[in-house]
Amino acid sequence: MSKRSWPFLLGGLLIALLLAGVVSNYASSHPDGLDSSLLKGCTVNADDEITGGSCPAQQAKDHELADSPLADYGVRGIGNDFLSTGLSGVLGVLLTFALGGGLFWLARRRNPATGGPATGGPATGGPATGGPATGGPASGGPATAGAAGGDSGTTVQPSGTR
Hints:
The structure is a single chain. The chain has a domain at 81-114. It is 32% helix and 8% strand. It contains 3 helices and 4 strands. It has helices at 5-21, 33-38, 81-109, and strands at 42-44, 50-53, 143-145, 154-156. The strands form 2 sheets. The protein has a two-stranded antiparallel sheet with strand order 1-2. Strands 3-4 form a two-stranded antiparallel sheet. Helix 1 packs antiparallel against helix 3. It is elongated, with a radius of gyration of 29 Å.
């Protein structure tokens, strides 16, 4: 990774941590669209418990991971709701960042040892190195015919292409 991308990456991580750790505590406590549509046809009390009627939410069951450490937007075992929600968000951001960074690191290691992109190495020659570009299928373009160091303007297409 280039030195120029580190400040951008760390700045994005800092903003994500701030949003997850602090701003997430000010999210709406009212049910979202899916929850409210599942409650249509039922009557609910002030604690959002179903007290009567018939609706799809009555068949709802706890999720298999409902007892996990980060279930319900909080950290199990922490009594302070503000701290629990913020810590849950921060841990979620850090886990996601670590997983994504690890996957990018693995993908980067799979590239050829030449240092070029995974789809093929850089074209040899050309203006950057002082010689003619070789082109061809490996570099993504047609080969150029001509004397060394010059360009006759003739393009040779690989067989089977138009």
